[in-house]
Amino acid sequence: MDQLIEKIVEILKQAGKIILECEIDKDKIIQKGTANYVTQIDLEVQNFMVDQLRRLVLESNVITEESADNQFTLEKPTWILDPVDGTTNLIRGYRHSAVSLAFFDHQKPVLGAVYNPFNDEMFTAYVGSGAYLNNKKIQVTKNQDLEDCLIAFGTTPYQRIQAAKTFHITEDIFRKCLEIRRSGAAALDIVYVACGRVDGFYEYSLQPWDYAAGMIILAEAGGLSTTWQGTPLGVLAPSSVLATNGFIHKKMLDYVNH
Ligand code: IPD
Ligand code: CA
Ligand code: CA
């Protein structure tokens, strides 16, 4: 187990180097949809990671954002990868993006890792062994009153038709909670719940590569993530996500559902 995590950490650090060292060629940015871009860095990190992961676990399946032929199944040992979570942040020099990686075997979560190369923060968890930030154990907060809670949310920027729902909910929560944050990288939002920087996070629709690793790390840090209906998160299709310290989960479910 330690060896697998160690290998993953090594690979993610190398992927982080690619992110830090590559200059974005603005002429090569591809627009996939409204405010939805892919840079040559996303593709370079993805190529590097897929190659490394397939060497590490032979015959494994890699589900990854910038691929046209993903196999959405956990039949084989499966990696779920976002080569760059927070591409808009990356393009804008915002320095808040991460590589997000989860591993499933026998249909079950095994490990999650989220690495932000800009501040060299490596979040890891091996199922059953706790969650760590740069090798130090992390835990969710114990806050129970929304008045004490810093809450992050995502705007689901690629489906703006749904914006009213998110922003109504956010106004209600903002009136009640300590303060609100919107970071632009869902994987980091979820691990920020895991390490207690925020108490909760919600987004109307995310892809499995945005939340699979964070979900595993959060559970190991004592937190909880579900859909907005309160059901367990699947990792083979897009989903709403509510990730909290556990104590405010019920209250937050009421907010996102009214
Ligand atoms: C996006 C980011 C963003 C979230 C979007 C995601 P990307 O991922 O996580 O915070 O609001 O829903 O798609 O496109 O930068 O990998
Ligand atoms: Ca993403
Ligand atoms: Ca991405």
Number of β-strand runs = 14
Distance between the termini: 43 Å
Ligands, deduplicated: D-MYO-inositol-1-phosphate, calcium ion
Poorly predicted runs are none
The CATH architecture of the largest domain: 2-Layer Sandwich
Report mean pLDDT, rounded to a whole number.
96
Topology:
Layout: H1 2-21, E1 30-33, E2 36-38, H2 40-56, E3 61-64, E4 78-85, H3 87-91, E5 98-105, E6 108-116, E7 121-126, E8 131-133, E9 136-138, E10 150-153, H4 163-176, E11 179-181, H5 186-194, E12 200-206, H6 208-220, E13 224-226, E14 239-244, H7 249-257
Parallel strand pairs: 3-4, 10-11, 10-12
Antiparallel strand pairs: 1-2, 4-5, 5-6, 6-7, 7-8, 8-9, 12-14, 13-14
Helix pairs in contact: 1-2, 4-7, 5-6
The structure holds D-MYO-inositol-1-phosphate (IPD) and calcium ion (CA) (2 copies).
Can you offer a commentary on this structure?
The protein folds into two domains: 2-138, Fructose-1,6-Bisphosphatase, Chain A, domain 1, CATH 3.30.540; 146-256, D-Maltodextrin-Binding Protein, domain 2, CATH 3.40.190. Strands 3-4-5-6-7-8-9 form a seven-stranded mixed sheet, sandwiched between helices. A five-stranded mixed sheet has the order 11-10-12-14-13, sandwiched between helices. Strands 1-2 form a two-stranded antiparallel ribbon. A hairpin with a 4-residue loop joins strand 6 (108-116) and strand 7. The model has no long low-confidence stretch (mean pLDDT 96). The protein contains seven helices and 14 strands. It has 258 residues and is of the alpha+beta class. D-MYO-inositol-1-phosphate is lined by residues 82, 85-88, 154-157, 184-186, 203, 206, 210.
